[in-house]
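Hey L., structure's done. Input below.
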Amino acid sequence: MKSKLYLILLCGVLLSACAKNSGSSDGSGSGDSGSSSSTSGSAAATETVVELQMPLNYNGGAFNLGSSYTNAAGNTITLSEVRFWVSNVKFVKTDNSEVAVPDSYYLISKNNAVTGDTTGERVPNFDLAAGSRENITLQKVPVGSYKAIKFNVGVDSTYNNNLSLRAGELHLFAHMANIEWSWTTSYIFGKAAGTCTSCSGTTAFSLEYGTNANLQTVTLNFGSNIEVNATSKPTVVANVDVKKLFTGIDIGTVSVDTGVSKRAINGFNNAGQMSTVGANFASAISLGSATSNVATEPDVGSITLNVAKDFNGTAFALNTNFVDDHSNTLKFTRFRYWISNVKLTKADTTQYSVPGSYYLMSTNSVINPSNINSGMSIAAANREQITIANVPAATYTAIQFSVGVDSAYNDDLSKQAGDLHIHQDMANYTWMWNSSYLFSQITGSCESCSTNKNFAFDIGANTNYRTLTAMTLPTNIALTKGKTGVINVRANVAKIFQVNGGAGVNTSTVAASGGVRKINASASAASMANLANAYQNNVFSVTSASVP
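Output:
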């Protein structure tokens, strides 16, 4: 019963998602991948990047998960995870005015793998891979002279009170979202967990803190000002002493939370001590150094990728009749698909893989979903262009990409890159009660069909992820520093409906369900492969390439 209640609550969070947040950018580079907000190297630069490093140590020495340490209370402990939010970063100028880093929500983490909880605690069934993240690249920092840095350790009330809001790295599957405290939704601000080998009885422990009242603020004065400008790449080192997380806490006397079978401080168990844990996270952070390093201007340019749709030579448009190779008259109301994992082939045959390249190409009117995401609407769109920034200067001869979302991200919606996030309305919560993405979604009507005119064709599942053969550019792109190359790609929608038994589909022969001709995981599932094959082999071709 408990796990069902959590599922109901999770659904409620998803239903409350707002349209204005479906396109929010995230601190790891959401949006057009490969882009950077840094304008360093430009004579007119008004902002650049600052590196914030937060290395974890133990009393000034090395810190490693699984190693044995003795805290101030004399407990012998080993840590399996230390995680906390850094948010609302601000730089303090010499005149004491402050400038805020936009969308600055970052999860610092050093952790072993964590298996998703199937008992209903927290967000169930989403595993957390082992990882270590101790460095942050702060984007869009205005040029200026700064004497200090300020930030919160935790999440401010605006976002802590509403998990449907997104900014930076915040999202409800970040493994720091807490759906148990008082049956409300909020974030865990900081957590340290492991085992106490010197404690009798229950040895596992978990120290957590959260709630708006426990939000912490840290200010680090530099001593000497740092200069942020077009020729510098400043670095701020903020050391994190894990030993100080246990100040005033004797693990051996912390009572056991029977819900998690651990000695625990959290919103339900020993909640009064959360303020101590929060204060410890703040006091554990101290300035290591702050320097104004001279930056080397990157030898990069950019690529504009235009993917224009047509139907056998006629410009593609919604609510317009087109006749396919089966003599079906089709009218489209939606055409959406993912382009992912873009690679550019160099003249020396090596490939440049565009980092985080996940782009939702969408031609649609306003969408008001009727599924679990019905609390949000998707704005009308006609996206046919991708801007790829920070492409290394080189001569490029070919382009390659995939259609769909690879298994690394398709199997775990907690991961984000490029345009990927769970509120895109291309995330599917219904197939076999799993979470995954729709790779393509095509809807419309078969005007020439005598019955069951409406159709809805979806592609999904890892087996239908397709990578195109590298397409040779008609003219090589000799990309130099600061220049922008252009690659024009044709997407012939008619090829999805061509006469070909190994690819494509004949709409008039697709079986109907509920009066709609459907292709998806449970209806005409085998046809999904034909659609995927059409995308892979027939739809796309490069028409031109240049450096204007």
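The longest strand covers residues 76-93. The first helix runs from residue 2 to 15.

-- N.
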